[in-house]
Design a protein that fits this description.
The structure is a single chain. The chain is of the alpha/beta class. The protein folds into 2 domains: about 250 residues, no CATH class; about 50 residues, no CATH class. The chain is about 45% helix and about 15% strand. The strands form 2 sheets. Strands 3-4-2-1-5-6-9 form a 7-stranded parallel beta sheet, with helices on both faces. A two-stranded antiparallel ribbon has the order 7-8. α2 runs parallel beside α3 and α3 packs across α4. It is globular and about 55 Å long. The N and C termini lie far apart (about 40 Å).
Length: about 325
């Protein structure tokens, strides 16, 4: 699709309305990436760099994605590879990032995450979610839309080198993804026919992106062959965008990277996901205020429930 500055302003506001309706009317699943741990955990790219240095690994010539780089580090020194990851994630700070603490305001059932920490479970502690983590997850666990948090790439709380089980390097992806992989089968079942809202997920993961491509192809094929009406699931992704402001002769102008917006719009359109943009220039604080606003709007006729649930955010 073509994106202009004026057109983007309309998309920006309307899509936020649409995703709020989806969250409170369509009972979507929630897919949470590492971005919602902002400030708690190292960024994926920063972690890879640290692993390469600590493992004294040298990258070969050519362009490698993050899982491939992680594999190089792991093969150079697997003991150090595990030590660094365990050290960075197993004793995470309980001062949870603002957006995570707001999750209890959303009407959630099944949550899927690539995070390694227990931050999401703690944010939802008043809603009594159960937790399942790699390698003990299965597509059959999704029956009945359970109130469960699934850590599909592992959970490192209390983990040791002996019990270490995460997905980060290419060989770990190969073990759990692919035609017979536990995680691939799980995600195919999770996404198929389900409304989903993505938070803190950049879609840079080539394996998950490929699964979403497969789901989109199946839905398009079924839509064309179906004799009756086929309502495709709603899938939205909350995407941060830096709305930079520059001062010019006493006034302010908002600078928008239209080419970046165009790139993400097209990339997500390919997998049937609608980006919902918000201003991330204040360390993603706008995301937490958006969740507040959506909750208050959805519960404006029931202030008692609003007060009770907001007190959990102390």
């Amino acid at each position: 699709m073509s994106v202009t500055l004026d057109g983007f302003a309309k998309l920006y506001s309307q899509r936020q309305v649409n995703v709020q309706k989806c969250i409170y009317s369509e009972s979507p699943g929630l897919f949470i990436g590492a971005g919602l741990d902002y400030g708690l955990s190292p960024l994926w790219s920063d972690l890879i760099k640290e692993l390469l240095v600590a493992c004294h690994a040298t990258l070969p010539t050519g362009s490698l994605n993050c899982p491939q780089q992680a594999r190089v580090a792991k093969e150079a020194n697997e003991t150090e590879y595990k030590r660094i990851i365990l050290d960075r994630f197993k004793d995470w700070d309980n001062l949870i990032q603002k957006a995570v603490t707001k999750l209890h305001l959303l009407p959630l059932s099944t949550v899927v995450t690539t995070n390694y920490t227990g931050a999401i479970r703690d944010a939802l502690s008043h809603q009594y979610f159960s937790v399942k983590a790699l390698p003990d997850i299965n597509e059959h666990d999704l029956a009945g839309n359970p109130k469960t948090i699934f850590h599909i790439h592992g959970l490192l709380e209390g983990a040791t080198a002996a019990s270490f089980c995460v997905i980060l390097s290419e060989d770990e992806y190969e073990q759990y993804y692919g035609p017979t992989g536990t995680v691939e089968n799980f995600l195919m079942a999770y996404f198929k026919g389900r409304n989903v809202v993505f938070m803190g997920f950049s879609f840079d993961d080539p394996f998950i992106y490929t699964i979403l491509l497969k789901i989109k192809e199946l839905e398009d094929k079924y839509s064309k062959s179906s004799s009756g009406a086929f309502n495709k699931p709603s899938r939205y992704a909350l995407m941060g965008l830096d709305f930079s402001e520059v001062k010019t002769k006493g006034s302010k102008k908002t600078i928008l990277d239209v080419s970046y917006v165009q790139q993400i719009e097209e990339r997500l359109e390919n997998i049937g996901v609608v980006p919902v943009w918000y201003d991330s220039s204040d360390k993603h604080h706008r995301l937490s205020t958006l969740i507040d606003e959506w909750f208050r709007e959805a519960n404006k006729n029931n202030p008692t429930i609003e007060e009770e649930r907001i007190t959990y955010d102390g």
